[in-house]
Amino acid sequence: MSNIKVLDKEFEPYISEQEIQIKITELAKQLNQEYAGKKPIFLSILNGSFLFTADLFRQITIEAEVCFIKLASYKGTTSSGNVITAIGLDANVSGRDIIILEDIIDTGKTLHHFLPQLESNQPSSIKIAVLLNKKEALAYPIKVDYACFDIPNKFVVGYGLDYDGLGRNTKEIYQLK
Ligand code: XMP
Ligand code: MG
């Protein structure tokens, strides 16, 4: 694996395709056991999570649904700050077991603002599964239930994650040099 350039920045190899796939297989096995008979809904947060979701979901062997949403944040007119709206949350989540799929948790801000909205639809459970967990950066009270990798507070791209929209189309994950 060699360095890649995305726009003006150089990135070096960080997590290999094989390491990613091993962790995803382990996570799928665990979820297949824990959610057997529960018909969970995998709620994938676009755009960054699309490859993680595809690779995980194809290894889910129990009865399950998948749904893709986009979280759009905009500045409220009051001092309350950012408001998060979910675009595409059309599945009826009431009474269902939800597994949120995120590519990366950084400060936790996005999910912190989205969770109350999801909870208001009264699912029977919500768990959070992430590919990458930037543990040190967490600044909101978010509990990550499943993490494939704990990573330091460094910017990463690849395997769905982007720098200014680019760099998503690699099989490996790269970190800023
Ligand atoms: P919060 O702070 O809300 O951030 O947990 C989550 C979102 O921020 C983006 N993010 C990154 N994207 N490389 C990326 O390509 C990174 O290192 C990175 N850190 C945070 C990402 O969109 C995620 O959903
Ligand atoms: Mg994202």
Question: Could you explain the architecture of this structure?
Answer:
The protein has 177 residues and is α/β, with parallel strands linked by helices. It has a single domain, classed as Rossmann fold, CATH 3.40.50. The chain has helices at 17-34, 50-57, 109-119; strands spanning 4-6, 9-15, 41-46, 65-75, 82-87, 97-105, 125-133, 146-150, 156-157, 173-176. The strands form two sheets. Strands 5-4-3-6-7-8 form a six-stranded mixed sheet, sandwiched between helices. Strands 1-2-10-9 form a four-stranded antiparallel sheet. The longest helix is centred in the first third of the chain and has 18 residues, at 17-34. It starts with a strand and ends with a strand. The mean pLDDT is 93. The structure holds xanthosine-5'-monophosphate (XMP) and magnesium ion. Magnesium ion binds at residues 45, 48, 103. The site of magnesium ion has 3 residues, from loops.
